[in-house]
Design a protein that fits this description.
Blueprint: E1 4-7, H1 23-39, E2 47-52, H2 56-63, H3 65-68, E3 98-103, E4 106-111, H4 122-141, H5 157-190, H6 196-213, H7 216-232, H8 235-262, H9 268-276, H10 282-296, H11 302-314, E5 319-321, E6 329-331
Parallel strand pairs: 1-2, 2-4
Antiparallel strand pairs: 3-4, 5-6
Length: 336
């Protein structure tokens, strides 16, 4: 199956491709490596097109208007949910410069032209390309609970935990496989060592993940929300505030664990910080679960649901099913 590789952005001529091309041609040469690898995965995930648009935000609105359109209908490439003004800063998703859009002939992978600027190099981009592709593969192989009759995601306790643990492991697994791919490409094909820029970017991302995962502000905010929930009994408001925050903390942990496991020497100081941090005891068990599932290549996430429930309980969030027959999620208060 042919994969279209289109570079519409006007990229600088200082960009050099693996075959000697410059500017847009250099980007096509890089992306051609990923397109070739993606063809080998066509029985798992079908990629129809890889695109570097001139206008990333406008392209997302054009390709997925319902997903990226804002309240005005004109579109917003990166909509964010409102947060309380005193909430701690949440970790940002590593997909801010990439997007995967479903289309009739397969997926369209969209990459922001900014990744070809001076802050990035080819070594950073190779991992970014493969990480996005692996996320798509994981979407197809990791379990997702059935939806309700009206098409909405199920919101019972098991469904929420299974969806969350699949997403968290998918991020962990995608990061490690992206680095494996880059390691092999650099060592066996390009005969290069990992660049200093890529190494520095890795350490900066790791430090950010550690900072979010061990944030004292986040713990304080979680305790305040739990106290308010215990006093008011307003579970709906509590869940709206706590679930995104706990998920972001969990994502930061999964990203940090991936770095620790793939770069143990480079990330050794961070390992000490995690060990000293006041993390729930279940954090280590879930980390081990992710590592074992990655090594085994197993998509069985069921045993991880209760490990994740224990981790979240350590953050103060104890999920429970609502009244029988409603399929709605609720949260237990202290003493319940």
């Amino acid at each position: 199956m042919r994969i279209s590789v289109d570079v519409e952005a006007n990229l600088p001529d200082t960009l050099r491709g693996p075959e000697g091309g410059t500017g847009p041609r250099a980007a096509r040469e890089e992306l051609g490596v990923i397109a070739g690898a993606a063809r080998g995965l066509s029985d798992v995930v079908r990629i129809a097109r890889i695109l570097v648009p001139a206008d990333f935000a406008a392209t997302l609105v054009e390709l997925a208007p319902h997903r990226h359109a804002g309240p005005s209908g004109k579109g917003s490439a990166a909509p964010t949910a409102p947060t309380a003004p005193t909430a701690p800063t949440a970790p940002t998703a590593p997909t801010a410069m990439t997007a995967a859009i479903p289309a009739s002939q397969g997926w369209v992978l969209v990459f922001h032209p900014g990744i070809y600027g001076p802050e990035h190099d080819a070594h950073m981009r190779y991992a970014l390309y493969w990480r996005e592709l692996t996320r798509l593969v994981n979407r197809g192989r990791l379990p997702v609970p059935l939806r309700t009759a009206d098409g909405a995601p199920r919101q019972d306790r098991h469904a929420v935990l299974l969806t969350a643990v699949s997403r968290l492991f998918g991020e962990y697994d995608a990061a490690r496989k992206a680095w494996d791919f880059r390691d092999g490409l650099l060592r066996k094909v390009l005969r290069q060592e990992l660049s200093e820029r890529a190494r520095t970017a890795l350490l900066h991302a790791f430090a950010a993940d550690l900072g979010h995962a061990t944030s004292a502000d986040a713990r304080t905010w979680l305790r305040m929300l739990a106290d308010d929930h215990a006093r008011t009994g307003d579970t709906a408001t509590y869940l709206r505030a706590v679930r995104p925050l706990v998920m972001r903390l969990s994502l930061a942990l999964s990203h940090a664990w991936a770095t620790l496991d793939h770069f143990p020497d480079l990330a050794a100081p961070g390992a000490e910080l995690l060990h000293r941090a006041e993390l729930p005891a279940a954090a280590r068990e879930l980390h081990t679960f992710f590592r074992n599932r990655h090594v085994a290549g197993s998509p069985d996430m069921e045993p991880g649901t209760e490990l994740l429930a224990e981790l979240w309980a350590g953050f103060g969030l104890r999920l429970a099913d609502g009244q029988e027959g409603t399929g709605k999620l609720t949260a237990l208060r202290p003493g319940d």
